Each structure stands twice: as C-alpha cells, then as structure tokens.
Amino acid sequence: MSQPRTLAAVDCGTNSIRLLITRFDPETNTFEEVCRENIIVRLGQGVDETGALNPEAIERTRKALATYTERMLAEGAQRVRMVATSATRDASNRDVFFDMTRELLSQIQPGAQAEVITGEEEAQLSFIGATMDLPTDDGPFCVIDLGGGSTEFVVGNGDTIEGRISTQMGCVRLTERFLRSDPPASEELRAARDYAREQVQHAAAVVNMAKARTVVGCAGTFTTLSALTKRLPEYDPDRIHLSRLTFEDLRATIAEIQALSVQERKDHPVIHPGRADVIPAGAAVVEEILKAAEELTGLDSIVISEKDILDGIVASLAN
Question: Which of 44, 72, 100, 257 could link 87 by a cystine bridge, Cβ 3.0 to 4.6 Å?
Fold first, then answer.
C-alpha cells in the first residue's frame, strides 16, 4: 500500500511569493491541504524599467523563502517544485536569484531550485488548479490568472487545453508604467485601461474566449475584489473560493477602490498592505477583462477561485 506523500509548491511572481504544502494519498488520489501562505516581496520592483532584479527585492524574497523552507522541513515535505514567472524571465541578473533558491530548496530535495516556466506552462498549471473544484459540466472554462507582471488566459475543459496565452500586463507592471497620483488620476487609469484593452484583445485573438460557458478569475487581485464585493469583515478564503460575482457588482467595487488613497486601502481589513498600492491597476485590467467577456460570451458573472497555479504545481508533483 502506497503511503501518503507530503508535497510542497512555491510560486514566486512579480508581487508575491506563495507556498502550498499538501499531503497526497496515491491510494485515493486525494489532496489534503496542510498550509497555504502568501508573503508580498515585490520581486519585480523596477524590472520593467531596469531589466534587472533589485538586490533589496532579492533579499526580501530570500527571507520569505527561508521561512517557507523551515515550514517545509517541519512538515516533512519530500518533494518541492518552485516556479518563477514574469519578473525572473525579464531579469538580466537572474542567476543570483536562482543560486539563492537552490541553496535553500536543496534542504528539501537535493538539486531543487526555482524554474523559469513559459507563460504557456504557467497558464496550463493555473487552469488545472483553478478548475479542480468546478464541475466539468460548467465548462468550457476561460481561466484568467492576473499576476503582478503578466496575465494568463487559458480556455479548455477537463484535461483538454484548447488555447492559452501569457500577456505582458499585471498589477505591478501597470502601476509602475501608468499610475503616479494618489488616488490615481482619471487620465492615468484611462491610460492603464487602454493598454490593458490592447492586451486583452490580443489574448482574445489567440484563445477562443467566446467558447467559454464559465469565466474563472484567480490570484490576488481577483480574490481581493471578491472579498470587497462581498463586504467581508475580514479576508476569508472559504467564502471567496468559488464565489460568483456579477459584472455590475464588480464594476461598482472597482470604482470604489480606485477612488481611495493608498493609506485608506492599507487600512481596509481585507486588502493586504502589500497589495494596496497596486490593486487599482489590477482592477483596471479586470475592467477590460469583464468588457471582453461580456462582448464575446454574453455572460454577466465571473467565478473567483482561491485555487490556482500552486494547486496545479502540486498536481504535477503527484503525477
């Protein structure tokens, strides 16, 4: 009889580094979540402008990963997979980052280090994670994973991926490019939306969004907007996961959040302080996604998933 295995997944994006530890039972093919953690490290700080990772950002990420490594050791993790996305794909000094990850992760699994995955693989892993708790009858799905530096679109159902693309837009990237005022000025938000519209139109030309019967949004911008729209007193993943939001309600939330100052957003109980300065730009991307979804699918609501690329990574380890 096969014994349960403890598997760990780490996702290091432009804005945050996240950990999922799961016990996988090969006999029943089931996953039991041990912990899910998120630390804002802003690894992608300035990458869009300088082409290099900021040394202070690397150090913030090292400290967070060291904390995660201690947790993995404590839980007896046997395998680990760490993926690094947009920020490291764009960086000229990425070897410093990868050497640091190998030093820490080798404590869990000899030779383990962060991998740079393609946007297409990122999209596939996000799709697997985001749809694992949704009935296949609700498909085909269009999963949209909105990150700090990139946003992935993937259309498919079950094990079949019909189209996927990674676009160069995210909440950090658009904040650094377009938003200077506090709160953001209307012309700044307009410029961010114009850029996002171009990226969404490009995505729609590559993947058949019109085929989707359900649109699924995942990652921090979407989950935070869900908490805000549902007026939760505190961030509650259980109430956010698989929540369905109407486009009308979501647009009202976006208007409210973009009118607040950074400090007002930091003071809000469901907004992580490290996300407070970038969520207006993320919301601008969401606005353009809703517009395209409305036009192409005729839908008037979106499902928000707390599960995402981390769950896809764990599934890849289990297989």
Answer: 44
pTM of the model: 0.88
What are the DSSP E strand ranges found in the chain? 5-12, 16-25, 30-40, 79-84, 115-116, 141-146, 151-157, 160-167, 214-218, 243-246, 301-305
Looking from the CA of 299 toward its CB, the CA atoms found within 13 Å total: 26
Enter the tokens of residue 228: 């805000």
Distance CA 214, CA 208 (A): 13
Q: For the chain, count helices (H), then strands (E).
A: 13, 11
Of 175, 193, 213, nearest to 296 by C-alpha is 213
The candidate with the shortest Cα–Cα distance to 310, out of 76, 68, 109, is 68
- Report the C-alpha gap between 2 and 45 in whole angstroms: 44
Q: Which residues of 83-113 are buried (b: 16+ CB within 10 A; e: fewer)?
A: bbbbbbbbbeebeebbebbeebbeebeeebb
Of 314, 218, 241, give the one whose Cα is nearest residue 10.
314
Distances (CA, A) of 141 to 178, 240, 290: 31, 19, 15
- pLDDT digits (tens), the chain, 319 positions: 678 899 999 999 888 899 999 999 999 989 999 999 999 998 988 887 888 999 999 999 999 999 999 999 999 999 999 999 766 777 889 899 999 999 999 999 999 999 988 767 877 888 999 999 999 999 999 999 999 888 999 999 987 899 999 899 999 999 999 999 999 999 999 999 999 999 999 999 999 999 999 999 999 999 999 999 999 999 999 999 999 999 999 999 999 999 999 999 999 999 999 899 999 999 999 999 999 999 999 999 999 999 999 999 999 999 8
Round to the nearest angstrom and report the end-to-end CA distance of the chain: 17
Q: What are 155's strand-pairing partners? A: 142, 163
What's the token pair of residue 275? Answer: 């996300």
Q: Give the amino acid at 274.
A: G
